[in-house]
């Protein structure tokens, strides 16, 4: 139920109450001024009296005002109740002789007043509702804008995340390719280093083989030349010329070696494995050369007189048999049995061909078949 608005009587009563309270407060001030003007000589006394006793005057004024307000309020309420009762008593007897619709005249008036109030309040509520709806629409609009901006930011963030993932994948592929290239490069460098080492070893081995082949060739040429000279010069030799022939062979070998290679006096250092392999190859080559030389000499030198000379030379050579000792590191020939070291063949860098047993067998076979 909506409370009724104040009437004109209520407003007038409130105004009278205000005026009374104002007069109650202004009356003490007026009295103080009058007393001060009348008794000018003792104004300080009256002022101190007012200040000391003024609180009692104010309290008395307030009490008097409260009594007046209560009196007027009770009077107004009594009038309003009497009017309402008189209206009811006046309207009730009329209901007996008037039409039924006139009995509700008071209700219609009250309803009209309440309807106007309700319309005003409904209008106010409608306005407030409109304002609230506007605020709601604005809030919805703002929330829609914020949600749209958040959606756009989420889409941008998703794209950036996708780009970052793609870049990460690309970087991982690049790193893997670089690691593979690095491993390939390292293996290639290792292979290159191994090949370089093998190439250097092969070059060194090739140089050693070249030197050995040159030595073998020189020794072969020397041996062939000495054998040919012996075959020519030994045709008129006597039985006691075997020692002279041996000395001449030694001198000839030394002279030819010094002329062919002046630095042959120095020892040649080689590895044990390569040296053993070279000895096997040299022995095979010397055996082949010996067989070829024997075949060539045997076809041209076959007479019985030379056989007698060679038999005597063989006995002399058996008497002055030469013991050869091969040093694996220096490759030198040791002294003869029947001579002193100074008279025998000095140490002068003979190679494995002339100091080998195959060359000694070759000379023996050649002398045994040489004609006188």
Automatic annotation (TrEMBL):
Coiled coil ranges: 108-226
Region of interest (Disordered), residue spans: 256-291
Compositional bias annotation for Basic and acidic residues: 280-291
Ranges that cross the membrane: 16-37, 49-72
Composition-biased stretches (Polar residues): 263-279
Keywords of the record: Coiled coil, Membrane, Transmembrane, Transmembrane helix
Protein name in the entry: Uncharacterized protein
The organism of origin for this protein: Nezara viridula
